[in-house]
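Consider the following assembly input.
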Amino acid sequence: MQYLPQLIASGISIGMIYAVVAFGYQLTFATSKTLNFGQGEALALGGLTGWSVTTWLIAHGIGVGVAYLLMIPIVLIFGMLQGAVVERLGVRQAIKTKSEAGWIMATIALGIIFKNLAENIWGRDALKFPSPLPEAALTFGSVRIQPMEIAIVIGALAMMLAVELFNRRSIFGKAVVATANDRDAAGLMGINTGLVIAFSYALSSMAAAFAGVLVAPITTAGVSSAAVLGLKAFAVAIIGGLSSGLGVIVGGLILGITETMTGYFISTGYKDVPGLVLLLLVLSFKPSGLFGKATIKKV
Amino acid sequence: MSNKTLLTIIGIALLVALPFFVKSPYYMHLIVTIAIFSIVTLGLDVVFGYTGEVSIGHSALFGIGAYTAGILAMKLGIGFWPSLVFAPVIAALFGLLLALPALRVTGPYLAMVTLAFGTIVQILINEMTDLGPWLDHFNLTEGPLGIKLVKPLFIDLRGTVPLFDMPILRLKEVEFYFVATGILLLAILVINRLVASHIGRAFEALRDSPIASDCMGVSVYKYKVVAFVTSAAFAGLAGALFAYSEQYIAPNTFGFDLSILFLLAVTMGGRKSRLGPVLGAAIVVYLPNLLADINLFRIIAGLIAVIALVSGAASLLRDRSAVRGVAIPVVLCLALFALSISLTTITDYKLAIYGVMILFVVYYLPDGIVGALKKAISTVKPEWVRTNVRIEATGGAGDAFVAPTSSAVSGSTLLDVKQALMQFGGLRALDKVDLDVKAGTIHGLIGPNGSGKSTMMNVLTGIYVPTGGEVLLQGENLAGKKSPEIAARGVARTFQNVQLFGELTLIENVLVGLHHTYKAGFFQVALKTPLANANEQGARQRAASILSFVGLAELANEEARNLPYGKQRLLEIGRALALDPKLLLLDEPAAGLTAPDIKELVQIVRKIRDHGITVILIEHHMDVVMSICDTVTVLDFGQKIAEGKPASVQANPRVIEAYLGGAAAAAV
């Protein structure tokens, strides 16, 4: 049991990554009731783009820390563009024709295409990402924590906070909230809801790409585990409730900690299982999530 | 002999002759794989095409079938034929598990559930190499190493017929071909019968309107489970065949990519048909060959580009304004051709090409190849194409009703609502409402918008569970019962915003209402037993009678979504009558109807009452309410403010106040 604090500490940082990706699911679901089934690939692409930019900068004589900071805005823009592409090619038409199977299949297809292109550009093997912070762990009592793990928690919270503030304070954010509440009414009030949806996709992929460069220094960058990661983040979004703001943080922490525990007490081969089982259980028994409100069906 | 039987016989003859013309073992194997994949895609179509749910977990069900066969052979020495029984049964059990979340969720949620299920199964196959000390460290699946099997030789036919004098390996392959295609034909037969039956109609009904299905006594959950289990059983069966056909199985085969391939096959071939999924399976199995040979791929890409250019030009000639719509696909096809010229190797881009194909199909072939062909043919020869089964049955309007079995004596209380309370958060949509509906009467329920009329309907039919109070139908409390259970007790309804099964024909809509008259189950439908035939004949006759009663007989084989609004409302009444209800709830049946239509409606409602069916009528047309209702109850803000004979209610000052406001009431 003396490992328990250590397992919890390690679980928190990975949990925050899930929370950011899950937050991305919430953004698009709120405005358009659609999801990007290629969200995991968006994270992987962000990590890989970040890797290319960082290594290029380092090769040109810039220090690791500065290179990492310079890379972040580039990756954020890249993420937004990637999200806009997904919305344009995968979602817009399907929203018009109200075809649910249409956007599900189209975003899956785009995920496959992105994954395959990434494999051809960066190779199938995971890449070692240069760490901007010292890799030596800090010791707190019996718990050892990497500086990057702390950076992940801070970065993840900052990202979610920034988007929330944007939505609550700015006039464009109000358009997003209005569209989320009632798309038709928002449209009648002169809000370009199509643009809002495209924007929510851009933000969603941006969040995922950011999560990609946050996590890459302590894991690696690569597309091989992208699909499973996207699925586990969906589990977090469901646990937290697809419409309940910051429930994803709690969901992320629950999943992150459960996972490190499973890896330690059972086998690392099974570490993806609890998240998926949790997804099945929550959807079977409380589909509105642990923190979401049940909706009333109208007839 | 009809054209159809002739075509079937020719088709089967071709299939029997095929292995003697295809000498290459490679192509023989490819054809067997197509047959096996077809069984999966036909099964997937039951879920995807008919119930409309996207499953990304079918490769796992396929894998479960394959591993059942593999484990039985390797660990227990149980051979081919028993595994054909075990594999579908085990896969069906997993399908049952997979359908459990379907109780609560649909659409993207269910797609994610199936994806998670598929991933878990793949992890389990990889990891279950050591079942722990309790099970003696049993190695169930051999993990990533995979399992080897041996293709069986069924009968040694060498030396019997000259035709079968072939090397033993080829004989095995030929015999396996016959077994696999035989099973495929059987699968087609069973699925054909299933989707044409009341079970298939239930699948489509729950896709088009889950709420209406439940209220017609067709439990959405039950039939989703039936669809998933059936689909899983076919996937499992195909898995067992696949294991023996490949003679080696490993966990990586049964991943996400394969599920996507199955989905691609069904969408590209064409949903809701038998030919579509088979065609799709043939394409996805053959595709890797196409992609392995860059020159062949270039030729095909060139052909596609030419076709795109020609059809693009043709549609431009027809409609000059279509430039934007036409430009994108044409440019995409040209880009594909340019890409095929520039690439030196293509296998690395296989997945991206699958992805592009899915996008293309989603955008430009939403009904698949078969759907597009049907559309093209119907512009030339409409009578050759039909999407729905044509049902020829005739029945007189007089046979629309069965003799009432209801024990309710006219004038006694049929429905007794006591202190019904329905609370949504802080809002009381129904505030302790009492309602006493006498058998054999038409009971009006009126009130301004938002007064709780529709909420009352939803409470009565189990869509809402009341927060408090009792709903007694002939003394039995319905509060807390689910919609299908309430429907089975004889409560039918129509909906304020029409909830028809749009893609079903009129007569099929009524047949869904008659679902309760079918006694035959799944296996009786599959075997086409006399009981199943008798049920279907009886129900068709009855449905035709009901359609003539509501005056829609000549439109019996039209799709419901093509009906004008007024007729849709009449069809809803017909469908509700099919339930043989004791109590019929009509929610604003005259809304949006023209004056002559309303007259017809009033006649119909009167006739329904004369047949002993009690009616609760919500309506805003006061002339209708006042002329046909025996009793009227008025609701306002969730409370009952008046009740009595139409005339007395009309004169009640509280009612006038509710409708016209306090000042108007004072002026009167």
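The mean pLDDT of chain A is 89. Ask yourself how this observation constrains the way the partners meet.
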